[in-house]
Structure formats: structure tokens, C-alpha cells
User: Fold this.
Amino acid sequence: MWRRIIIVFAKEVKDNIRDRRSLLVALIYPLMGPILLGLMMTMAASVVSGGGEGESKFTLHVQGAEYGPALIAYLEDKGVVIAPAPKDPRESVRLGRVNIVLAISGNFSEMFDAGRTASVQVISNPSRLPGLTALNRVASLLGGFNILIWGRRLADEDIDMKVLRPLSIDSVNVGAITHITDILLFMVPPLIIFNVFMGGVYLAIDTTSGERERGSLEPLLINPIERWGLMLGKFLAALLFTAVAVLVQLAAFKMVFNTMGGPDSPFAQILSIPTLLGIIMTLAPLMMLAVGAQFIIATVTRSFKEAQTYLGLLPLAPALPGLVMVLSPVEAEKWMMAIPTFSQTLLLGQFVRGESVELLNVVISMSSSTALALVLIACAAGLYAREELIFGG
Amino acid sequence: MIEVTALRKSFKSVAALDGVDFTARNGEVTGLIGPNGAGKTTALRIIYTVMRPDSGNARVDGFDVVADRRSVQQRIGVLPDSRGLYPRLTAREHVRYYGRLHGLDGAELENRIDKLVETLGLGEFADRRAKGFSKGQARKVALARALVHEPPNLLLDEPTNGLDIASSRAVHRLIRNIRDQGRCVLFCSHIMREVAAICDRIVIIAHGKIAACGTPAELLEQTGKPDLEEMFLDVTGGEAGW
Assistant:
């Protein structure tokens, strides 16, 4: 029997390698998630690092720079590049043409030199992320200038600055670049789960409802092979395509993480080889489960199009909990490991974020998913044995 | 040899077969004919094992189609009503796939494929993918894959349906050759001229029952009709099947 199962498997693999649509789903679709995530992470990282202390040159558009030479000198000393403000600063900031404008009032020097309060205006637009980071930067620069001048004026009066400064604040942000990208890492599990349910879907449809619609199923059933064997050969071919899609996607994620910021960046540590092996092991039962579900749907639907409609929706359901967890993460608990797709979402999250993964959790997840996968495969085999197989429904 | 005894099969409340008996002998072409919806395809489907009878039985070379399904499958070659091909496989790959499923392999299988390519005239398109094959070309491939394991019993559901005259004649020649080798051919058709030309015995089925059975000459004599078409209308009640 196994010899015949392998014959069916080999035929389906060969047939579908020649099919551009099957290859597209297995080789190209899986790249979309990693590419999208890479772009989002690169953008997020560049925005955040642009606002960090002592980072790349910060350009500040100043209106009336000539009125406040002391302030301009201080800013230039801090490495700020001073540029003239656009004609209509408010409009320009609102439209995002410039991130922020500092307007120095005409009597700045007069008030400043007299030891009184001189005024400046900061025109910002915090509704845009670059505007928000620029505002933080300017606020901290102006605060620094305030303290400097305070100190000088108090020294003139022989008062120690420390008396008026009970608290010295040093901010140490260990999250730095990874803060925003941490959130993006939560998107990795749902993208992988989606792919697991998508990778072999075309093959599942083509080998069952597609075969029926072409009229090639009935003659095939007359060959001396048990129906469950026929189903298993086709199932294994779809499983292979699913596995290829998952491997392609993991490789793409690995490449994206490695190329972002070079080997020293925190991303290069994500998805090390042992982690990848852990992920593949965790996903193996889910792949069987996904293909089993696809075969059941492809068997009971009457046409290729009907199967395509249902199977197009199938990946969304298991990916949903993961998508929700992007916004509100869940602490993994033992009972959750018994829920197929949900447990994998949690475990993949732990793997990707480099948290410690409990072996027992992996074992519970794998066994519960394998059990359900076997039930689904048995159901699919049962459906294959029915007379209605040749008609569908 | 195919023996069918008291075969019954219903779909929901509709009786497709209501106690059908007939025999198709070796070295003969048996024509199973009847109006549309008479139960021909259902009878064939039970014999070629994709359906189970509600009661009664069918035997191929003595093997029961339900109890000894695998043995029956090894002894039959079938051209069913639905005979689609795989658009991305070549003609030769189609035949090879079925040959392998019948346990053939290596040089023996390749020799058989070469022989079928020659007999059925697949030469021109043997290594082309099936997408874009004409009806005639597709039919030849479907026949080749049904014959690759050299089955002693051949079941053909309207094998010339949609073919041009030359292709139909080629199919008739093939059927006669197979009969002359002493094999059993069970053949479904609507075309009385075709039935008259190649059938040694005729089984007429109407409303799920056997309406008449015998050689063409016997049937004409029994009914006193001048030709098979008249005889057919007489025996089946002359109603349109649809």
C-alpha cells in the first residue's frame, strides 16, 4: 500500500510543481509578511533613533534667529543645525513639511540681557511621530538652556544652583530602538500561523475538488488503491508544500532580522538556529492539522470555486487570536497549551521574543494538536470513502 | 466475465436500479443500452467499484465487487463517463501513473506504454502536456490509461461520444481487437448504428429494469421490427428519457 501512496504523492508533487499558482502560494506569498514587517521595523527604528540623545544631526528651523544669538549659540554647541524657518511656519508644520519650528520673539535679547524672562514659541505637530520626537528633542534642549542660564544667574547672586535643584534626572532607556519594534515582533506569530493554513491550500483544493471538477477523480478511484491511501498520498503532497512555505517564510524572517542593523543589532539574535528548530517542531503538528482541515473542506465542497471561498477564509480564524495579542498580550498558561493554533501563537511569540520556552508547554501543545490532526485526517479519509466523493457535497 | 444478479440501487426515494440481471461473457462485446436516466451508468459504477449496491451483487471473473474490490479493480479497465485528464501531465505520464498504480514499473511498463502509443496512435502528442488536447486526443489517452495493465474486462461508457467518424472507427477497431483476444467488453452507447456494428449481445435497460436481452438478430426476431432503432423504441416504450 505504501508504494502506491508514494506513487500518488510523487504524481501530485510533480503536477503541482508545474503549476504556477501552487508555487506562488508556497514560495512567494510567504515572503510578503517578512518583507512588510522588515519595512515597518526599519521605518520605526529610523524614526525612534532620530529622536535619541546624541544621535544623528538634528535640524531645527528657527524664525528670528538673529534676535537670540545666545540661544542659537547654545543650540549650535549642542550640535543642532539651524535652518531658516519657512514662510508660513504653522502651515508648514501642520502639513509635515518641517517637523518643528522655533520662533524667537523680537525682544528676546533685550529681556534676556536684562535678566528677565525672554519668550520663544515652539510650533509643533505631535500627531505625527517625527513631530512628536522633534518636540521631545526641542523641549529637552530648551530645558537644558533654561538650567544653564539659571545656574549662571544664581551664581551671580552667590546662590548654589543645587539648592534649587533637588532632583537630577538621568533617563536610561534600555528599550531604545527595540521599543516600538517589540510590538511589531508580536505580528510574527499570526503571520506564521496564517502561512501554515495557506501554504498547501491550493494543492488541497486542486487534488480533491479540482480533480473532481476536471473529471479525473472517478477514473482514479477505480485503480487498485484504498481510498484512504489515495487521500494520504495527496495529503502528504499538500503537507510538503505547506512545510516548504513555512521554511521559506522562516528563512525570509531570519534574513530580514539579520539585515536590519547588521550582526550587532538586537534583531540578529532573534531566530537563532536552535530557536528555528524549536519553531519548526512546534509547528509540525499544526501543519498536519491545517492540511487535514483543508482536505475536509475541499472534499465536501462541490466545486473548485466553492472550496476556494471557504479555504480563503480558513487562515483568518486561527490567526485572529495572534492579531489581538499584538495589542493586548496574554500571559501563557498551561491550559492554553491544549488549544491548537492558540498554543502555537503563544509559543511562537516566546520563541521570537527570545523568552524562555517551557518544554512541557511545547509537549502539551504538540500532543493536543497532533491528536486533533489525527482526528481530522481520519475524518478526511472517511469522507474519501463515501460514494458521494465523486459528486461532492 | 461480468455477472450481475438482482442488482438494486436507490438514490433517496428514486430507484435507479430495480433488480437487474445480466451477464457479459468473455470474447464478446456486450452492449448495455437504454434511454437517458435508465440506470446504465449506475450499473457500470457498481461494477467498476465506485458505488455499492443496496442489494444483489455483481461479480467480475468470480470476484465480488464489494467484498473483493481490489481483485476486481485489478481485472477491469474502465473508460467512465467522466474521463478528465491532468492538464499539466503529458499523455505518457498519464499512462505511466495508472500503470504504476497497478503495480507495473520499469522496462515492462515502458514497453507497454510504447505499445499503446503505437496502437492508439498517440505518437504525435505522447510527450505533450494534456492542456489543449482535442477531444479525440484526450479520449485516446483516457483509453490508453484504462488499458495499460492489460485488463481481461473492459468497461466503456459511451466511448465514441463527441468523436469524429474516423476516431469512432478507430475505437470500434480497438474494441473488436480486444474482443478477439478473448477478453470481455461491456459497452454503453446511445448510437444504434454503433451498437449494431460492434455488439455481439445487447442488454436493454429501462426504468432500472432489464427490458430485453439477446443478440441483435434475436431481438429483431422477437419484436418483429425492421431495425434496432425501432426495436429499441418498442422495447423501452418509446418514451423520451428526459
User: Anything to note?
Assistant: Chain A has two domains: 2-46+179-390, 53-175.
